[in-house]
């Protein structure tokens, strides 16, 4: 009797956790951090990282035909965490400021992912300014290497300069066979910001237009 009550209590707690929290999301996030920190080698801040995924039944849309559009952006959380850990980007941001948030994101779907298909997400930094770091992510199907979707995300750093953060990481070690080795000059010149990609420039212009339209219109002066 006591064992049944204990079992019922445990099951009740588990159910409550799943009701109020997306438990498997947090478990997977913890696993991603552990793997990136202890099982994968560190890479240079300008390197490209990859994580793999499978379109399972919880990822598909109501038509049961392909991966739900919202799931693509959710999967990017795990890809970014892997990149943050392996490049020390998040630790450096924490050391200089308070954190980082997603400021904006745009994604273009080129071809859908079918259920149970395996895919790869690549992540790399393509540009930065004083306040934000811009990352490009690609969903690539394993079977044919086709880029199924491409996303650009703006990571807004808080209470520090993105330029300063990138400067430190560009100075820290160099790339050796895809890994990172201290004391070797980086392959790219430090503190040299890349040219802004045209798609990012136009996207930022679109964001500014959107921001301007959302600002309150000043009331006309009263007579």
Automatic annotation (TrEMBL):
This is Protein THEM6. Keywords: Membrane, Transmembrane, Transmembrane helix. Belongs to the THEM6 family. InterPro entries: HotDog_dom_sf (IPR029069), THEM6_lcsJ_thioesterase (IPR051490). The chain crosses the membrane at residues 6-27. The keyword Transmembrane applies.
């Amino acid at each position: 009797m006591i064992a049944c009550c204990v079992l019922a209590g445990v099951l009740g707690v588990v159910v409550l956790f799943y009701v109020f929290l997306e438990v498997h999301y947090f478990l997977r996030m913890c696993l991603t951090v552990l793997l990136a920190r202890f099982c994968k080698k560190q890479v240079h801040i300008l390197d490209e990282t990859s994580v793999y995924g499978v379109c399972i039944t919880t990822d598909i849309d109501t038509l049961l035909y392909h991966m739900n559009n919202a799931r693509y952006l959710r999967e990017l959380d795990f890809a970014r965490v892997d990149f943050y850990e392996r490049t020390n980007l998040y630790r450096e941001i924490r050391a200089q400021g308070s954190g980082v948030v997603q400021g904006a994101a745009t994604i273009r779907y080129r071809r859908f992912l079918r259920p149970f298909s395996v895919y790869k997400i690549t992540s790399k930094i393509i540009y930065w300014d004083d306040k934000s770091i811009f990352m490009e992510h690609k969903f690539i199907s394993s079977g044919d290497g086709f880029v199924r979707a491409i996303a650009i995300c703006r990571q807004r750093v808080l209470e520090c300069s993105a330029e300063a953060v990138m400067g430190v990481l560009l100075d820290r070690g160099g790339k050796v066979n895809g890994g990172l080795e201290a004391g070797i000059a980086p392959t790219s010149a430090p503190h040299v910001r890349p040219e802004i990609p045209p798609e990012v420039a136009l996207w930022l212009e679109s964001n500014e237009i959107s921001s301007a339209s959302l600002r309150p219109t000043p009331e006309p002066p009263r007579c």
